[in-house]
């Protein structure tokens, strides 16, 4: 007959996955102290040169460092919409985010597809598609984020010289998004896209030790119903520079519009 300790260990094997499950309204993650790579791709279904970079971003699904070292986000912009095809995932706020990077000198110009890594424009070249992580990962502090129902709470145990102007960003990402493009430069193409930003909120920090954030979850977008998989990604920014992030895939649950 198994011992009491053996029964407890066996029970833990069955209960641990349930406790660790992440959903849209029950989510908790904590980061390490090293700065990860927050990889933003500004893209559009109306841009013929964007699908190759969209496919490159999709490759992060196979990276073991996803949601620890790499946080890919595809922001679909609106300024291509007038050329024949309205991108269903495009938002004016996403275009504004790209122009905010321009206004704050993070990028030199606005175009698609454009990569911004940790708040700075990245043009892939002979050095590879990604920056050298050895020189891109300073100690910045630990981020803890919890979603419980509609309430969003977070703390950032900062190791920064100053905590002035910190903000928390929260994005719902959709993967396996499928679109048959009817017009424009990609007319006739069947696009399958991942890490598509479906919603994006941000909250100001409360100056304390650690810095804390409080907010309310906005309505989940209807496009989330089309996703094969969903994920939450949250990150802390200072002066338009992403510093620390958490994220994870979510279990499926009904979406109320």
Taking Cα atoms only, what radius of gyration do you get, to the nearest Å?
19 Å
Strand content: 35-45%
* Largest sheet entry: 4 strands, antiparallel
How many strand segments? 14
Low-confidence parts lasting 5 or more residues at pLDDT below 50?
1-19
In spatial order, strands of the major sheet run 1-6-7-12
List keywords for this structure.
4-stranded mixed sheet; alpha+beta; 14 strands; 3 helices; 37% strand; 257 residues; 4-stranded antiparallel sheet; disordered N terminus
Question: How would you briefly describe this protein structure?
Answer:
The chain has helices spanning 4-20, 50-58, 92-103; strands at 26-30, 37-43, 70-76, 114-117, 120-122, 141-148, 151-158, 166-175, 177-180, 190-193, 196-204, 211-216, 229-238, 241-250. It is α+β, with helices and mostly antiparallel strands and 257 residues long. It has a 4-stranded antiparallel β-sheet with strand order 1-6-7-12, with no helix packed on it. The protein has a 4-stranded mixed β-sheet with strand order 3-2-4-5, sandwiched between helices.
Textual characterization of the structure:
The protein is an alpha+beta fold and 257 residues long. The chain has one domain (24-250). The protein is 15% helix and 37% strand. A 4-stranded antiparallel β-sheet has the order 1-6-7-12, with no helix packed on it. A 4-stranded mixed β-sheet has the order 3-2-4-5, with helices on both faces. The radius of gyration is 19 Å and the shape is globular.
List the helices and strands and how they pair.
Layout: H1 4-20, E1 26-30, E2 37-43, H2 50-58, E3 70-76, H3 92-103, E4 114-117, E5 120-122, E6 141-148, E7 151-158, E8 166-175, E9 177-180, E10 190-193, E11 196-204, E12 211-216, E13 229-238, E14 241-250
Parallel strand pairs: 2-3
Antiparallel strand pairs: 1-6, 2-4, 4-5, 6-7, 7-12, 8-11, 8-13, 9-10, 13-14
